[in-house]
Design goal:
This protein is 23% helix and 15% strand. With 138 residues, the chain is α/β, with parallel strands linked by helices. The chain has a 5-stranded parallel β-sheet with strand order 1-2-3-4-5.
Length: 138
């Protein structure tokens, strides 16, 4: 029985590693090609702060990932579009770092924080997805 449990454990570790390697492969290709759009939807990374080095990226999508802290990518001040739907972000105060942001998509957060989000003045398109939203006054 111990051997079976060990195999199951190894299988879970391999799954976790491949889950992260897919996102890392996309980042590596983006760096090699100097892409302007980096789509990591459903592709989590072990270290999101490495994205600060991708100064050529103007559109970043981290939808449906474990991304949780905007401070980790606060060096990406060149971003014009950011999509963070269904992430683990709970504190949106880090939005103030993105002064060039024109498009922002957010969902899957506590609606009570909406009024405290420091939306950059450059925002021209805001996509908000919530299951319940009673008042949209900001």
């Amino acid at each position: 029985m111990g051997a079976v449990l060990s195999l199951v454990f190894l299988s879970a570790c391999n799954f976790q590693e491949s889950r992260f390697s897919g996102g890392q492969n996309v980042v590596d290709r983006c760096i090699e090609t100097a892409c302007d759009t980096l789509d990591l939807d459903e592709l989590p990374l072990r270290n999101y702060s490495q994205l600060n080095e991708t100064r050529h990226v103007t559109t970043l999508s981290l939808q449906i990932t474990d991304f949780a802290d905007l401070e980790e990518i606060s060096g990406m001040t060149q971003l014009r579009e950011l999509r963070v739907n269904e992430t683990d972000i709970q504190d949106f105060l880090g939005l103030s770092a993105f002064g060039n942001l024109e498009v922002l998509w957010v969902s899957g957060f506590d609606p009570a924080t909406l009024g405290r989000m420091p939306f950059p003045p450059s925002i021209s398109e805001l996509g908000i997805g919530l299951e319940t939203l009673e008042d949209v006054a900001m």
